[in-house]
Write a structure and sequence with these properties.
Two copies of one chain form a homodimer. By secondary structure, the first copy, chain A, is an alpha/beta fold. The first copy, chain A, has one domain: UDP-N-acetylmuramoyl-L-alanine:D-glutamate ligase (3-Layer(aba) Sandwich). The first copy, chain A, has twelve helices and 14 strands. Chain A has a nine-stranded mixed β-sheet with strand order 6-5-1-9-10-11-12-13-14, with helices on both faces. A five-stranded mixed β-sheet of chain A has the order 3-8-7-2-4. The two termini of chain A are 25 Å apart. At the A-B interface, β4 and α4 of A face β4 and α4 of B.
Chain lengths: 331, 331
């Protein structure tokens, strides 16, 4: 029985977010789908950046935000992701290290710049993302250390990594290693357009029993099952995936696990500022509960509390120590 | 009579701020004076950065913040400052351009990295700054275009530039050019330790009638005059400098100008978050009033409103359009 030194080992895109305010007209003008993520190349990223208002730079990346939440909850987290040998790469590494997260994927040169996500926050607090993947798209299987995977209770993978080839291979390696080591495999669908691009392959993963915990929001679960009822869609996935968690924004979240169903409302908030990271932090709370074996409802509540913190300020990582916010829930 | 295309041309350090929360013990441990700025070399900056919590990166630089405020007030601003040919330099240039500020000092390579200011914000919202000047310290006189200076109503210079040699020469050139062109010269003392390092030279500038408008906070004006009464200190400076503006944090501000004295209280705020940029934005409001010839009291009120906006969020530049906040004051 391996020593489970890490609660969660997350594998994802190592990204620095550039967050600016914009109105709906700006999104329309640039052909963006509100609330979605799209990949842009370096030239498009530069064109868009030039048109954007002043930005706040904050470390991001979906799975990296989740593991930041894990650390903020007082659990042990590790991260695997590719940065370049540049200033944004240094910022990413600094920020995740300073949270106490293990991160030692070496920066590489000549693979493009560190990934940036240009995020437009509209007055309704929704975020619309334009990602230049750069170095992050060059994460390769060598970066995944089987010994590290075996030391984790849960390995957490982001669907965004399914787009580029090398990171997809790295994820496959992580899944294979995790199965052998008895490490649970959690996966987030990330974005409904990601689901749309890879629906067949995702179902193959489920059928091959490669996923233990699946995270989706409403748009993602409905796109996955091509079904306009989230409940029915979740049920159809739950036939293949032991635990399915569906987040529903201000309507809270529900989960299906081995015949059990649990549901929580959204946590009350004082003011909605920026929804960036809501799903990532929900996953953090839920995974913390899972790692500690706290049961479905308590894990969902931890998710709801973590998500509520992150949407009340700009940026996708907690600014308040989540451990203190959740109190006895994680005793 | 030259065409005054620019209301304010600011010359200062081109800096990206890295803002993180810290407690008083952290400041003590690192030997920092709360509320002050100190210069650090690259090695010290890296050591300190490694020990700091996760950061928010936001464009800063004292005079650059001021001209950001000028633009946010709807006036025409230009900036002169040196960045390197790197990612932080791109961020600095993007942010100031996106505000509509003229900035075309070419980035240079092989002069060190773009300047960073590591800012620790304590729970009392005070900011303590550790500046690695890098490329900013290599601003040289060639960057100051006499034609540009002549097109400005006011040239605004930051005391921080008095430390390194080349920028000091650039400021002297700007002052000489401004005098010839009939451009007003405004100067901010920046920091009481800067004053302490250059007290004699500063008084020489005043005696040579090189400064038309001087900005100081309480600590700076008292250090300048080596006097423990800010009023008396300001009076002694006002004998040589036509307009002296003294900011007093939550006690508001006063100004002395050609025998006249005016005073304003601080603007009410909802919550104090981060005082970074308070003095810079006060200067922006006051200079906007000066550029429009609005008189001492109205200019002070503009300063107080701009300062109040910036201390209610992280970062040293306005997040709300100041033009809308000041309403009829700047009609």
């Amino acid at each position: 029985m391996p020593n489970r030194r890490l609660d969660v080992l997350a594998i994802g895109n190592a990204i620095v977010d550039v967050i600016a305010d914009a109105d709906d007209a700006f999104l329309d003008q640039w052909g963006m789908h509100k609330g979605a993520m799209r990949l842009v190349d370096e030239a498009d990223a530069m064109r868009l950046y030039a048109a954007m208002p002043p930005g706040r730079e904050l470390s991001g990346g979906s799975a990296a935000n989740t593991v930041a939440g894990i650390a903020s909850l007082g659990l042990a987290g590790g991260f695997v992701g590719q940065v370049a040998d540049d200033q944004l790469g240094e910022i990413f590494a600094h920020d995740i290290h300073s949270l106490g997260v293990e991160f030692d994927t070496p920066p590489r040169s000549a693979i493009g710049a560190t990934a940036r996500c240009l995020i437009l926050v509209t007055p309704d607090a929704q975020r619309t993302m334009n990602t230049f993947l750069g170095a992050a798209s060059r994460l390769n299987p060598e970066a995944v250390d089987p010994a590290r995977v075996a030391e984790a209770r849960i390995v957490y993978l982001e669907g965004y990594l399914w787009d580029p080839d090398e990171p997809r291979s790295a994820m496959m390696k992580a899944m294979n290693t995790a199965r052998e080591a008895g490490t649970k495999i959690a996966f987030t669908l990330s974005d409904s357009f990601v689901v749309d691009r890879h629906r067949r392959e995702l179902w193959d993963l489920f059928e091959q029993k490669r996923i233990d915990i699946l995270f989706a929001n409403l748009a993602e679960i409905m796109s996955l099952a091509e079904h306009d009822s989230a409940d029915d869609a979740a049920l159809s996935v739950a036939a293949l995936v032991p635990t399915v968690v569906v987040t529903r924004s201000e309507q809270g979240a529900f989960a299906l696990s081995r015949g059990e169903r649990a549901e929580v409302p959204a946590e009350p908030i004082r003011s909605l500022v920026d929804t960036t990271g809501a799903g990532d932090l929900f996953a953090a709370g839920f995974l913390a509960g899972e790692a500690r074996g706290l049961g479905l409802e308590r894990s969902l509540r931890l998710g709801a509390i973590a998500a509520a913190e992150v949407i009340q300020h700009y940026g996708a990582r907690p600014e308040t120590e989540l451990r203190a916010l959740v109190g006895n829930l994680l005793a």
